[in-house]
Amino acid sequence: MNKSELIKTLSEENNISMEEAVIVVNTFFDSIREELVQGNRVEIRGFGSFKIKEYEGYQGRNPKSGKQVAVQPKKLPFFRPGKELKEYLNK
Question: Which residue in 1, 37, 61, 71 has a CA-CA distance of 20 to 30 Å to 10?
Answer without folding.
Answer: 37
